[in-house]
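Homework help board

Subject: predicted structure for assignment chain

Our instructor gave us this sequence and asked us to write out the predicted structure in token form, then describe one feature. I got the tokens but I'm not sure how to describe them. Can anyone check?
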Amino acid sequence: MTVGYFVTRAAREDNAGVLEFYDAFPVVRELYDGVRKWTGLSLDEILGEHLPEDHGTSNSYSAIRSIAAQVAVADVLAQEGVRPDAVLGLSLGITSASCMAGAFDRADMFRMLWERRAIPMPVEGEPAQGVAICRIGPDTDTSTVYGDKVDGVYLGLDFGPAPDGLGSWVLLAGYRSALEALAEHQPSVVIIKQGIAAVHSPLRRPAAEFVRSLLDGVRFRDPQVPLTVCLEPRTLTTGEEVRTAVWENLIRTASIPHGFAELDRHGVKLLIVPGPSMADDMVTFPVPVLRVQRPADVEAAVTKVAELRGAAAEAGI
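My token output:
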């Protein structure tokens, strides 16, 4: 195997790139026509930049835009003969990756994403939740940052070794008051985001159960290519495993090193990031990365993949 896809939720939509793909490729316009039909949203709502004030609806808009852009780029690459040998999904990217691996029908997926606008959020009167970005130094005792000794703070996402080699980055999730208290005596807690649910933590159990209910009766197929998710270091092989990963993603710690380790086991030598993704300057990639975010990036990806697969064929791999 040579080529893997790495799919994450977009940290911010690159609307210009999405519009360029829409204008350049009929296969992208066909996809967006489908998204419009499956969700009932207008093309302007799907391709636009405006987000509704309602938090749940805004989240659904953002998720639909992010995943539609990623699937669109994957469709363009497939039309050019580039298909992944393995797919890795992180966070909401698990949903997108499941579709790219042939396990989650895109019509069912986009309907589910729109129905997620009613996902339960922390209600008024309950302790406020939040997330924080934290730099973990090489000598930091992580038990002083999260875990059983730090009440109300959970490890949400482990980014793995920092690109500069000095420790690592983590996303913390929990009660806002606990995160603020931690930040007072832990200068490594560098960002607190207010008004955000405690993603990838047990506090999101009501939301996870809601998504689970949305998936009742939805058909999931066994992945057509190796599909791994950043929840544990293993490959998902059945449709039921994929279903579980989609809803459990909300309450389980995510680990990028787990996902990369599994891709290495599958022999991935090149990672393609199709479409918009999270800000990945905190991630150390173990293999070369190609980001396909504009139509001009497609040719480079096609050329590189052809070179790799040609070399592998010559070597008898």
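Reply (TA_rk): Your tokens look well-formed. For the description, you could write something like this. Residues 54 and 117 are 9 Å apart (CA to CA). That's the kind of observation they're looking for.
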